[in-house]
Amino acid sequence: MRRSALKLTGALALAVLVAACGSDDDSEDLSTTDPGRGEWELVSPEDVLDECGLDRGLLLEADAALDLPWAVVRYGKLCHEFYPSGEDEVTHAWSATKTLGATVTGIAAYQTRDLTRSGRKTGPLRDDDRVDHWLDEFSFNPDAQIAHVLGMVAFNEDLSLGNKMHSYDASGDREINRLSDIINTVIAQDPDRFGADLEEFTQRYLFEKLGMTGSVWSEGQPDKRFGFGWFTPLRDMARLGLLILNGGVWNGERLLSEEWIYRMTHPSFEDANTSYGYLTWLAANTSYSFGGILGGVSFTIPLDPCSPAAINATFPHGISDSPDCNYTPPWSCEQEYDVGVWWAAGAGGQLIVGHPGLDMVLLVKDIGEIGHHGTLWGPVRPALVAADPVFQGDEEAFCEAYGAGSYAPDLR
Questions:
Q1: Which domains does the chain have, with CATH numbers?
Q2: Which of 67, 292, 294, 297 has the most crowded CB, counting CB atoms within 10 A?
Q3: Contact at 8 Å (CB) between 286 and 276?
Q4: What is the Cα–Cα distance from 341 to 244, expressed in whole angstroms?
Q5: Is the pTM of this model over 0.90?
């Protein structure tokens, strides 16, 4: 299902953000294109152009250029996949586990939304909850809220605007693994409904719902690592990516709120990092760095001019007090379309890349230690641009428009 493009300017930006936050309105349109719990049906080669808007010959050239396990999902369909070994193998996604964990946390928030709060360790899970509402002890800032943990800033002594920094919690031991304890405490309020522990909850509300039959998180243990530990085939990575792209809806059922997805895929604390949401990386109109993947060593990911930046539609937002997107000239906080690229990234280049403006998810394994959205998008892009009805193979003009956020042919 193609998206109708919406501009985000002035009052309309606010209206779109309110709509994006979602509600419990039973009239909400929950129609999506996805495989449900069944197997993916690969689009036949002769139909790839018509059904996916991709040039088959150039996809084959991408196979040769990448020579890695990779796939593309567009309009909710598995359009193309390639496996050098001949099969989709289960391997470690490493830090892509973080985005899996952010999704499960969002599902826990949505599924517990009707619980009554009557004191500590009761009620729904919310991202503005203080951590000490759920935990008796923890090692980071005692005033931290769940959103601070998800944004990897909870370790700061001062969480006020302009006084915190983002530091990548690679292993999860500093703060984000405590989300496992929080969710286990939340679901313990009703184990019959939510399951006995986080493993059972994840199986019931994510893996089974999406048909992620090949996935294992933290070896099936009840306590989860949020830093790593998700073993998965590429097709299961595609299911997670499509759930996020679909705003939290799968097979006609809302699994988590669109507001939570929005906060995952937009900067959570611009004063700390303009390229990080809830345990998920974001394209940004600046160079940015992250550390911790290899023993705390920091890497710089270059700006990809063909990926629109993720910028919030309104300020302030969530628990952030940021008055703007924290860009400096020549960059601006203005955006025509809210179509920022997001990605889950694991060590060695395990990537799930979302392009909301193109209704597309890209997947790859083992693309390199400093692999990021641009390293996959580059080889695949010609196949899309060649079939684009407006730019018809003019990649330079396409990137100028799409990268600036002024072209979004498939925004829903």
A1: 10-403 (3.40.710.10)
A2: 292
A3: no
A4: 12
A5: yes
